[in-house]
Task: structure prediction
Amino acid sequence: MAVHKLILDDVFEEDFCTLIAIHCTLEDYRLAYLLNKYLGISLTRSPLDLDYQNEKSTYSLFEWEDSKQQTIWSLVSNVCKTEEYRQRKNESLFDSQEKIIRTAYLIPEYKTVNYFLKIDNEINFSKEKYILNNVLKAPQIATAYSIDINQLKSKDNLIFN
Result:
């Protein structure tokens, strides 16, 4: 008897979204304002942040749904810094707590990226270039570029909905 094996990896491999990496030192709300201004969109803060590892790391999320184009725009932070305090072990005469700042990344492959702009719709090359040029018009943004989402190891972290 012949054994038939179905492989479904190729069916679900392609993601129809555009991912833009943004390098800047702005706060998340200021970047959302600038993107709204330069792209003509209306990003608003999501009531719930992205929560990974049981509230050990949370990432701010701004979203806008374009009903005309049937597209969801999402701006998400890549960096989460948390403070922890731990007791020092007999290192000094006085007992004191030591403050440790831990940094977690939404997409660890891109640790230098501050924010990601995810557009949930397949966009042609000319429209993607137009979006990138408008993002780069903001003087506070150091650089921005497109990322192939299918090459990411941690692309599952970009599933928000």
